[in-house]
């Protein structure tokens, strides 16, 4: 894509295309947070794109910018070829039916005063959809809730996992093409996480959904995603099919994330652990050149002065690094 060098889908069957997405906002006098910087990707119809990175890397900011909540500082977001950035009022509202979102905290994202039927019915009511009652019952059944017993209850009467099922039903009832899942399992127990992930996979196949799945846990991302986009401090580091990313990681930051996965495939050397430890720099004053260079064991003078662009190193495998690893053995534990 223009500016960032990220590849388009070869078959052109993308339902969502994001180009050079940039999100900046003020944080006090003369202070600007660079939350997302020229991130580009596209998502094929029926695909799940995972977006992974540490807390504060810009994942959720990118998701909200795609939803135009608020609109990005600059860049392009296209849904089925229609440009969303710049839309206002009714024109923007018309796109919301096709682009829904599931939030991180299932309990706080639901109105505690309303019953489940009213929560799920809000979308069809706003849109004047026909057979609204039937759609609500179908959506609740699809997420594993019995309409007869669940519809009249309020969120506080449910567990966190059940509340997330209600949130999914609320998004599903409008029959969207794309659902953005913003860390939808991070607040749930491990056993419940697996149930929600399996549910999303089933719904994706049943309703031909396209998912953008955001998480900080690469193990979760790998299990549900077709392709994975790795972000660090507002920038894209790597984009590859999920299996290739795990088996042949090319960016040092991807390797660091993989090494943190329990029983994962990679382990860092003691020197690498020391260099990659600590917190990321502030997004108010990101490093020059490569933003990961202050924690990267391979960083050199070029990394401080020249920002790496996304470039292909294998079919469908792109990386933004001056010194990417092309040989999988380079990442084997010593």
Automatic annotation (TrEMBL):
Superkingdom in the source lineage: Bacteria
Gene Ontology MF terms: ATP binding; ATP hydrolysis activity
InterPro entries: AAA+_ATPase, ABC_transp_ATP-bind, ABC_transporter-like_ATP-bd, ABC_transporter-like_CS, Oligopep_ABC_C, P-loop_NTPase
Domain ABC transporter positions: 16-258
GO biological process, one term: transmembrane transport
SUPFAM superfamilies, sorted: P-loop containing nucleoside triphosphate hydrolases
Signal peptide limits: none
Alphabetized UniProt keyword annotations: ATP-binding, Nucleotide-binding, Transport
Cross-referenced NCBIfam families: oligo_HPY
Family: Belongs to the ABC transporter superfamily.
Protein name: Peptide ABC transporter ATP-binding protein
């Amino acid at each position: 894509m223009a500016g960032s060098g990220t590849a388009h889908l070869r078959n052109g069957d993308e339902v969502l295309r994001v180009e050079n997405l940039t999100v900046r906002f003020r944080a006090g006098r003369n202070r600007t947070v660079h939350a997302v910087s020229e991130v580009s990707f596209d998502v094929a119809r029926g695909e799940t794109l995972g977006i992974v990175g540490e807390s504060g890397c810009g994942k959720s900011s990118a998701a909200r910018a795609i939803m135009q909540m608020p609109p990005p500082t600059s860049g392009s977001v296209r849904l089925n070829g229609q440009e969303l950035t710049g839309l206002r009022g009714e024109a923007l509202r018309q796109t919301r039916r096709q682009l829904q979102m599931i939030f991180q905290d299932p309990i706080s994202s639901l109105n505690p005063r309303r019953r489940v039927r009213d929560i799920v019915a809000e979308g069809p009511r706003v849109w004047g959809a026909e057979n609204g009652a039937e759609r609500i019952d179908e959506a609740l059944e699809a997420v594993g809730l019995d309409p007869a017993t669940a519809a009249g209850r309020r969120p506080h009467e449910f567990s966190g996992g059940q509340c997330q099922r209600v949130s999914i039903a609320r998004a599903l009832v409008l029959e969207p093409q794309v659902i953005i899942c913003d860390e939808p399992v991070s607040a749930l127990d491990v056993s419940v996480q697996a149930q929600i992930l399996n549910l999303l996979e089933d719904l994706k196949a049943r309703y031909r959904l396209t998912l953008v799945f955001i998480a900080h846990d690469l193990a979760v991302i790998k299990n549900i995603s077709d392709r994975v986009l790795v972000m660090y401090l507002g920038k894209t580091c790597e984009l590859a099919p999920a299996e290739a990313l795990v088996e042949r990681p090319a960016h040092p930051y991807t390797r660091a994330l993989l090494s943190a996965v329990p029983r994962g495939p990679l382990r860092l050397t003691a020197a690498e652990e020391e260099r990659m430890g600590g917190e990321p720099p502030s997004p108010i004053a990101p490093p020059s050149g490569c933003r990961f260079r202050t924690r990267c064991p391979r960083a050199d003078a070029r990394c401080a002065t020249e920002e790496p662009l996304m470039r292909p190193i294998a079919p469908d495998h792109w990386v933004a690094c001056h010194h990417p690893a092309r040989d999988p053995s380079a990442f084997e534990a010593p």
